[in-house]
Design a protein that fits this description.
Blueprint (H helix, E strand, L loop, with lengths): L3 E5 L3 H12 L8 H4 L3 E3 L5 E5 L5 H6 L5 E5 H7 L4 E6 L5 E8 L4 H7 L3 E5 L2 H11 L3 E5 L15 E6 L3 H5 L2 E10 L1 E6 H6 L1 H14 L2
Parallel strand pairs: 1-3, 1-4, 7-8, 7-9
Antiparallel strand pairs: 2-3, 4-11, 5-11, 6-9, 6-10
Helix pairs in contact: 1-9
Bound molecules: phosphoribosyl ATP and magnesium ion.
Length: 213
């Protein structure tokens, strides 16, 4: 394609990216929730948007199937970031990555005792590194979603998950016992595309930079 392809996930990232795109003069012609289309044209004939799963965004950009994309720091840490240029923290889709346990579970005591914790998470690499740094022995259990359920049914002692309002933890009688990091979404750019399509991409990156809150 002569123009550029932007990879976005639907939901919070798509919604929070709309104002940034608008600042760059780009308006998608359809909404992914209502149209169900995976390739969405914009008001600019040289710019299109592809709708991908949030955790797949870095893969599309790494392989050049999309020139540019927006992905959470959580997703980028798990992906590793190979082949990606990450020029901007867009400060959108903000949350915190936390360790949470059932209310009443004495996490500090379990850690002090040197007990082997069973931790369920989607974020295996990030969790492994976190507990290794603390010298805590863990058995990591990979899940793809609804981590909050795992401690409630005895699959795990703790979870590593994202928390924004805290309502999901509250509704499931869980509480945060540790914060690993704050999370926001970053602009990611295919390194080859940045050179080949510099004339289209650089003004877009500049417009995004100017619009970041
Ligand atoms: O939903 P899907 O399985 O397709 O993928 P996804 O969950 O990775 O995508 P999406 O669109 O839900 O999230 C995209 C990105 O948004 C993530 O990669 C994060 O960087 C960011 N983000 C910001 C969040 C949240 N806030 C968030 N609260 N991603 C997920 N959550 C979930 C969290 O996992 C937990 O289940 O929301 C729940 C907690 O929310 P509160 O408000 O109850 O605390
Ligand atoms: Mg989700």
């Amino acid at each position: 394609m002569n123009g550029i392809t932007i990879a976005l996930s639907k939901g919070r990232i798509f919604e929070e990216t709309l104002p940034l795109l608008a600042a760059a003069g780009i308006v998608p012609l359809e909404h992914p929730e209502s149209s169900r289309k995976l390739i969405i044209n914009t008001n600019r004939p040289d710019v299109r948007v592809v709708i991908v799963r949030a955790s797949d965004t870095p893969t599309y950009v790494q392989h050049g199937a999309a020139d540019i994309g927006i992905a959470g720091r959580d997703v980028l840490l798990e992906h590793g970031g190979a082949g990606l240029y990450q020029p901007l923290d867009l400060n959108i889709a903000r949350c915190r990555m936390c360790v949470a346990v059932p209310v009443g579970f004495d996490y500090q005591q379990a850690v002090r005792r040197g007990a082997r914790l069973r931790v369920a998470t989607k974020y295996i690499s990030t969790a492994r590194e976190h507990f290794a740094d603390k010298g805590v022995h863990v058995d990591l259990i990979k899940l793809y979603g609804s981590m909050e359920l795992a401690p409630l049914v005895g699959l795990a002692d703790a979870i590593v998950d994202l928390v924004s309002s805290g309502n999901t933890l509250l509704a499931n009688n869980l509480m945060v016992v540790e914060e690993l990091m704050t999370i926001s979404s970053r602009l990611i750019v295919n390194q080859a595309a940045l050179k080949m399509k510099h004339e289209i991409l650089q003004p877009l990156i500049d417009a995004f930079a100017g619009a970041v809150k």
